[in-house]
Design brief:
This protein has a 4-stranded mixed beta sheet. By secondary structure, the protein is of the alpha+beta class. It is built from 9 helices and 4 strands; from the N terminus they run βαβαααααααββα. The protein is globular and about 45 Å long.
Length: about 200
Amino acid sequence: MRKQLDFFFFLGSTYTYLAVNRAEEVAARAGIELRWRPFNVRSIMLAQNNRPFIGKPVKLAYMWRDLERRAQRYGIPFRGVPPYPIDPDDQANRVATVAALEGWCPQFTKAAYGMWFLENKDPGAIEPLSELLQRMGRNPGEVIAQANSEEIRARYAAETELARSMGIFGSPTFACGTEIFWGDDRLEDALDWCQSH
């Protein structure tokens, strides 16, 4: 049985762009299965009075430059500063929850981040989200209706509560059992831990 690493992410987290574009390949090379788990980090951060970039222009400017440097290091496209923040209603994240249940979460999340970072469109807004789902061969009306159902809202809330109970406070976070590793730059540490424990 392959070892498994949980990938807790929030579509709307800037640094998660890096993880989304590299985690699957790096985990596969390590022989570890990556389980994609969307959750509402925004609600956790607000409860902790933690808004890392909003209202902090100097820190925000540093973050975008840091992201650009790190993207260049990994060979990940970066075409300038995209709109931020996005997805105020968590719609893209609920679609990711549907996708996680149905087995197409990596493809959707990568495409949604591509739409955000490379096309400067909010993948949580109805028109871009519908366009994205059509590109993927999905029925936008059906998927969005499912994402807005009580079942999916409850699932998304449950994943968020699980993350909170594990001490997760940011995105991306990798979890091997109860051991958590926060940040794209901790992906390799998480995989090493997973292999050796």
